[in-house]
Amino acid sequence: xxxxxxxxxxxxxxxxxxxxxxxxxxxxxxxxxxxxxxxxxxxxxxxxxxxxxxxxxxxxxxxxxxxxxxxxxxxxxxxxxxxxxxxxxxxxxxxxxxxxxxxxxxxxxxxxxxxxxxxxxxxxxxxxxxxxxxxxxxxxxxxxxxxxxxxxxxxxxxxxxxxxxxxxxxxxxxxxxxxxxxxxxxxxxxxxxxxxxxxxxxxxxxxxxxxxxxxxxxxxxxxxxxxxxxxxxxxxxxxxxxxxxxxxxxxxxxxxxxxxxxxxxxxxxxxxxxxxxxxxxxxxxxxxxxxxxxxxxxxxxxxxxxxxx
Length: 309
Ligand code: NAP
Ligand code: GLV
Known about the structure:
The protein is an alpha/beta fold. 29% of the residues lie in helices and 17% in strands. It starts with a strand and ends in a 15-residue tail after the last helix.
């Protein structure tokens, strides 16, 4: 069995080592731009180039080294007609829980304001927020959104979630479909996005939708930057409608040096690290799925191209 490996950062040696250890019958074939693609059974890739995709029509499946599929689906008709399989959790849910819980607690306990006070040498206790009024709403009830909601619920926060299709999750007020979005937002104090980037979610968080949040709301975007209309968000922060924002993802990454987000004290920026691909977990999951495919069985996390995720 031959497995083609490609990453846009060029770091494939550790992946090759792990695949060959986990699947001794496999030979890994690292691919670099400009090289012809050798005949392979599977491709394991991240952020491929058009030149690579053109040559993947022969593989039995393409595995992604991440959860989001937008960087691949943007190639549209140029994508080969083979199954595309993304990572399902593979150690990302735990990291996402840590990141979002940290950000929610930081706002709930007003640490963001105490950080600003401390910088100015101010010793002053602020009135605590009331937990029963601090509803956290998570957009996206998938592999990552559900564990995040569960963890917040365990901490006693009122929680609600929004998805495309109806869900029934214990202790979570569930909303589904575009027609429920305004109602969902109007009762959400902390909005968390864990939606995939699709034509429907691109710019979803624009002035109209963000204005539905109650005054003094917070936003945590750990999904994809293009879901946020950046000038609208800035305007609402400056108007005082949004009290604090934590952004891990941006329309253009790395966030360009002159971007106004860098100088907005109410925005906390991290460099797309909320849930990193854990190579060992990823290889274990992909090897398991290759085994299922080789036995003619179905695998989870196959991308639905029509749905866009
Ligand atoms: P997932 O399991 O596919 O879940 C996606 C959820 O979004 C589903 O609940 C789906 O609804 C919902 N959804 C999709 N389109 C919708 C729409 N138009 N309206 C309402 N709900 C919609 O995805 P996941 O594994 O949880 O990952 C979510 C995203 O997180 C990824 O796509 C990726 O962009 C991002 N991510 C970011 C990082 C990072 O480090 N920042 C790391 C990993 C992933 P249904 O359940 O009804 O289908
Ligand atoms: C990271 O953003 C991923 O989609 O895995």
